[in-house]
Amino acid sequence: MPAEPHQNPEQPHIGIDHQLPAPPEPEHKRSKTVRVLVWIILLLIFAVAFWLVWNHKSTTGAAAPHRGPGSGPVTITTVTAQQGNLGVYLDSIGTVTPVYTSSITSQVNGVINAVHYREGQLVRKGDPLIDIDSRSYRATLLQAQGALERDQNLLVEAQMDLDRYKAAWARNAIPRQQLEDQEKLVLQDQGTVKNDQGLVQYDQVQVDYCHITAPITGRVGLRLVDPGNVVQSSSTTSLVVITQIQPITVVFTIPEDNLGQVESRVHAGAKLPVEAFDRAGTHQIEAGSLITLDNQVDTTTGTVKGRASFTNKGEVFFPNQFVNTRLLVNTLQNATLIPDSTIQHNGTTAFVYVIQEGVAHEVKIKPSVSDNGITAVQAGLKPGDVIADSSFDKLQDKSKVILSSKPIPAATSGSDAP
What we know:
28% helix, 33% strand, conserved putative lor/sdh protein from methanococcus maripaludis s2 fold, Elongation Factor Tu (Ef-tu), domain 3
């Protein structure tokens, strides 16, 4: 078998023509094609979703059209303006203050023998409270009484001598000088007697100081001393404190801007009622009356103090207790009254919706004073006017309305049928 001729690898092969495979497609072209397909699919999905949402909104809108202002009748509740009286009040914070508070201290030195009161006891004027050992003061009083008796007898003796000297002088039996000396001696004895009388009274006062009684009718506080304690007249420590409970007063403040209207009523002789409420301002404790005003305005607060008196029959007030006060300054007679909830505001302008023949009319008003959710209107309304009291988010001027006899919830106001 003949040997195959040697071929040069660098020379092209000349022989049978073999078909070569096509070169592979580049990787970046395939990635670009995939991205384009993905975007096309996303756009189709977005278009379908948009069409579904739009179709759903169109169907819902046709079934239940939106009811905005003026688009249809609004369901509301109403109230009627009334004619009546409304009080003009000044609200403030007050402090319960007893008319009298007596802090009793010792006027003498000594040992306490007895304490007669009980803690929290209601004592009457003159009731015994504390006894202090008075033996030393009684001994001094006895000495003063003895000196007084001696000097009184010396005075009587000198007076008798003076009478004899006068009779002798009438007969020219004694010289004038002797008579005049006796007259002056009588005057000296009279002065001595007066001095003794003063000493007796002073010593008697010291003895009385040893028996302490209640100077006022009131309630005593906690016991501050016990039998056996030594007290001093120079001490400022109280032995017992008594506060008057009935009647009792409340001191409160009045703004100086309102002082004129209060003073005018007081000077006219009016008895201004004052109501006292608890700290929360919900429960009325008792009603009293204003008795006086302070004589100057506090420049730091711009207020003047007023004092109101209360009978405190049930002892509902406690000294130094904080209360809320309401001073009735005046009463508006035959005013047009409406609830606060019917009043709307546009800046500084107040208005209400007056209902006439099924249509709401916006009417500007001028409110006056307000109390307990009721406002007096000075202008714009008259008693008997029917006013809207709900659905204000739906109402506009000249909106058609439907009256409802049931309260309308805030979340569905104006959208429910009566």
